[in-house]
Each structure stands twice: as C-alpha cells, then as structure tokens.
Amino acid sequence: MRQPLTRELADLVERGRDRQLRLAVTGLSRAGKTAFLTSLVNQLRHAGLEARLDLLPAAREGRLLGARRVSQPDLAVPRFPYDQAMAALAAEPPHWPAPTRGISELRLSIRYRPTRSGLWRGDTGQLALDLFDYPGEWLLDLPLLGTDYLRWSTQVLAGAGAQRRALMAEWERAAARLDPAAEANEAELAAIAEQYAMALRAAREAGFADLQPGRFLLPGDLAGAPVLQFFPLPGLADGDRERLEALPPESVYATLAARFRHYQQHIVKPFYRDHFRRFDRQIVLVDVLGALNAGPERFEDLARALATLMQSFDYGKRSLLSRLFAPRIDRLAIAATKADHVTPEQHPRLTALLEALLAEPLKDLRYANVPVKALSLASIRATDVHEVVHQGERTPALRGTTLDGESLLLFPGEVPSRLPDADFWARQGFAFTAFRPPPSPHGALPHIRLDAALDWLLGDKLR
Ligand SMILES: Nc1nc2c(ncn2[C@@H]2O[C@H](COP(=O)(O)OP(=O)(O)O)[C@@H](O)[C@H]2O)c(=O)[nH]1
Ligand SMILES: [Mg+2]
Predict the structure, then answer these.
(1) Terminus-to-terminus CA distance in the chain, angstroms?
(2) In angstroms, what is the span from residue 362 Cα to ligand 1's centroid?
(3) Is 267 exposed, middle or buried (0-12, 13-18, 19+ CB in 10 A)?
(4) Could you give the domains of the chain?
(5) Contact of 22 with 132, CB cutoff 8 Å
(6) Helix (H) / strand (E) containing 303
(7) Is the beta carbon of 401 within 6 A of some atom in ligand 1?
(8) What is the distance in A from the centroid of ligand 2 to the CA of 172?
(9) How far is CA 363 from CA 86, 350, 367, 404, in A?
(10) Whose Cα sits closest to atom 3 in ligand 1?
(11) Is there an atom of ligand 1 within 6 Å of 347 CB?
(12) Residue 148: burial class (beta carbons within 10 Å; 0-12, 13-18, 19+)
C-alpha cells in the first residue's frame, strides 16, 4: 500500500520541482523587516499592473501574472500582519506599521509565464513563496552554542565601551554582590535577571545592537519563564573553573550555569533546527544610515553585532553551524535599507559602506562559496528627489514630510564609502531625519531597488 507523503517529504518534492521557495527576511530591530516584507508582498500583488519592477526580468517582460496570499504550511507560526501594515500606510496621515516581535510567516502563490512556455499557449508556472520574518537578534545567540557559562560570563563585558557599560552599571553592581558559592535565592536571581534584561533593552533603545541573549530582548511567549532568568556573573576568570564546577547544584553559580545550558539546548538550538536550516534563501537588512547617525560607539557596536550575526551564514568547513545542523542556503542578500534618506548619487557609497562593514564575514562567505549580493534599497520610499540651485550650482536634495507633518527640503549629507574615521565623526556630516511614509498608496508602494533584491532572491525561479 502506498503511504501518504509526510509534510517534510511533500515539501522536499515540491522544492525539487522548483515550485517552492522559502525566503527569510532578517535584520536587527528597526532594520526595516516589516517595511520590506510589506512592500515585497505589495509589489508582487500589483505585478503586471501598477508595480514598477523593471529590474526583475519576469516583470519587465510582462511574464509575471500576479500573486495571491494562500494559507501557510506551518500552522504553528503566526501569520505576517500584511493587512495591518497596509492599513497603517493607508491611514490619514499615513504611519509606519507597528513593530512586530518574534517570527511570522506568509505564503504567496506567484503565477508567471515561463520563458519557454511549453508546447501549448497559455502555459503558466506557479511558485509557492514562503516568506519568513524573524528577528536578527536571535542570530546573535549562535555563538552561545559554542561557549559555556563561565566563558560567556568573562566575555560579555569585555567588548563593551564606556556608554554601553554605563547603561549596564546598575545590574553589574547587583550581580557583583552575589557570591557564586552561596545557595541560590530564586527571587533574588529573578530580580537581577530582570535588571539584566532591562539593561539590554536600555542599551538597545540607546542604539546598541551587540546584545546577548537575543531572547531577552524579544522574549515572545517566554517572558517571565525561568529559562530566561540567568545573566553573566561579573568578576569570574577562566582560572576559577575547577573551583566553580565543584560547587553544589543549589549554588548561585551552578543554578545560573544550568539555566544557560537549558537556554542553549531548548531555545537556541531548536531555532536553528526547526527554522533556520529549512530556509532556502535569506536577506539580511541593515540600517547603516541609522548607525551612522548614532555615532562611533554605536556604529562599531553594529559592526560587531553584524559579524556575529553573519556567522549564522558561514557554512565553511569547521563552522559551528555546519557541525551542528548542516544547513544549506543557496543565496544570500545583504541590504542597506532606508536609502531614500540620502540623495541617489550617494547610493553606491551606501552599498560600499555596507560591504566595508561586512568585509570580514563577506570574505568567509565567499570562501564557503555562498553566493552573496550587497545592495542598497528603500522598501517604501518616503522622499522625492529635487535639485536646488545654490550660487549657480545645482545640487540634489530630498523632499519629505517629517513625522510631525512638516514638509522639509534638505541635503542630508554624504555617506562615507569606507568605514568612517575620526575625522568623519568630528565633522558629524550626516543628518538623519525620520520621515512619514508616502501618502496613501492605492496602487503599488513606491520603492528603490526592491526589484533588484527580488531579482536576486527569486528571479531565477521565474524563468
Ligand atoms: N524612509 C524610510 N523609512 C523606513 C523604510 N523602512 C523602514 N523605515 C523606518 O524604519 C522603521 C523600522 O522599520 P520596520 O520595518 O518596522 O523594522 P523591523 O523592526 O526590522 O521590522 C520604520 O518604522 C520606519 O520609520 C524605508 O524604506 N524608508
Ligand atoms: Mg518588524
């Protein structure tokens, strides 16, 4: 008797026929994931009509027939709130979609005419595109799998600068008062863990990105669970290992170390096993301009966080991930978002800066033979390009509406095409203003190079 296919097997067969593509969108909080996915869905739904997707050959050649939302295969993953996002953008005045936390998913069924459309006319192809939105913060946890509680404790504060350290000071004082050998007091550990989580959140609010553990920032349904009630112990050294590991299980040290292990095994690993490993392609969004605006300590912190985050894509021979899960991604895109914040002639510099920021991880990816493309884009373009004539010289400028509703004409400044040096920071030649989204879109949302990203991520599946 023939057995019905399991879902995994059915998925595999689908994928083998090029009928299914699992595309994940990630990036740290506020990098622009929600805007990107909203615009992506919006463009594909308007393909062939109002959408401007000239850089996507299937659209340019009129072969992209449209896309429809269909029910998603993973019922346990929340649905990406596309309608809510579009409602926010269509409001009067328009506003940006509310931030989302955790992972979400949406399935589109895309219809297209293949380039060699078979023997009979009207032959159409279909691609099931599964889109995932998940927080880049979760990827910052990968290195936790390659370390242990003691090493983590000694490393956590090592890389922090003065401003970041100041934000952690209160927690640090409380944690330093704990005696690792004393019997653990549940309530006390919970309180200090909460202080640690608060310090991480404060650091994120202040523009820092390199923060661990990632779930402390976006706990989702784990908020308040003991698995999140741990923190590093300051003042430990690797030389203390023998003494610490001999402590009884009820001690402060052993309790925190056990929770750390639980977090590794039951939070970090399942994410890689259940989700990450199954994505075919991913795009990593980076708010380079925001970091540039926030100053040197934040900018360097972003560089560190990105280096950590990108380890998740490095499947080189001896990488932690490949040893654990043997994942597979056949393509990766990295994009500097919100490019509409600078004038168009700055866009190549923005891409160059993104590549400079990711230079080391990009080298490793190339070595591991993962095809990567770097680009700059605006998922939802909020500004228009103008020219101003000043003392007989024409210079480009942007017009946009601030969040308070004020119309502004400005030149935001030059983007450095290499990692900014002390001189750049001293001049502070960059002014970042947050803009309102464009007025209520009836057709497709205005964008910059979203079609280039689409071409890289799924163009080859629409041939
Ligand atoms: N001007 C402009 N702003 C954007 C764009 N994409 C995102 N933003 C801004 O960045 C904020 C965070 O974006 P969001 O998509 O919610 O980030 P997420 O946390 O990664 O999902 C938004 O509220 C907007 O203010 C864009 O394409 N253009
Ligand atoms: Mg979001």
Answers:
(1) 38
(2) 25
(3) buried
(4) 14-138+277-382+439-462 (3.40.50.300), 140-273 (no CATH)
(5) yes
(6) helix 296-310
(7) no
(8) 30
(9) 38, 19, 6, 43
(10) 338
(11) no
(12) middle
pTM confidence score = 0.91
Pocket mutation for ligand 1, best pick of 96, 204, 309 (most atoms within 8 Å of C-beta): 96
Which H helix or E strand runs over 386?
strand 384-390
CB under 8 Å, gap of 24 or more: what pairs does 109-112 form?
A: 109/67, 109/68, 109/69, 109/70, 110/44, 110/64, 110/66, 110/67, 110/462, 111/65, 111/66, 111/67, 111/68, 112/58, 112/63, 112/64, 112/65, 112/462
Beta strand 407-410 with 331-336 is unpaired
Bridge partners, residue 397, by sequence: 386
How far is residue 297's CA from residue 208's CA, in Å, rounded to a whole number? 8
Question: Could you tell me if 217 and 211 are in contact, meaning their C-beta atoms sit under 8 angstroms apart?
Answer: yes
- Of 82, 131, 218, 338, the one to substitute when testing ligand 1's pocket (max ligand atoms within 8 A of C-beta) is 338
* 33 pocket-lining for ligand 1 (C-beta < 6 Å): yes
- Residue 324 tokens read as 């654990």
**Does any ligand 1 atom lie closer than 6 A to the CB of residue 34?**
yes
Closest residue by CA, ligand 1 atom 11: 30
What token pair was written down for 418?
């290499």
Ligand 1 midpoint to CA 31 (Å): 6
How many Cα atoms are found within 13 Å in the side-chain-facing hemisphere of 263? 31
What Cα–Cα distance (Å) separates residue 52 from each residue in 40, 251, 341? Answer: 12, 62, 20
Length of the chain: 463
Residues 436 and 400: beta-carbon distance below 8 Å: yes
Distance 251 CA to ligand 2 centre (A): 39
Which letter, b or e, does each residue of 236-248 get, where b requires 16 or more Cβ atoms within 10 Å of its Cβ?
A: beeeeeeebeebe
Residues of the chain with pLDDT under 50: 1, 15, 119
Burial degree of 410 (CB within 10 A; 0-12, 13-18, 19+): middle
The dihedral built from the CA positions of residue 289, 293, 294 and 297, taken in this order, carries a sign that is positive
Is residue 434 lining ligand 1, measured as CB closer than 6 Å? yes
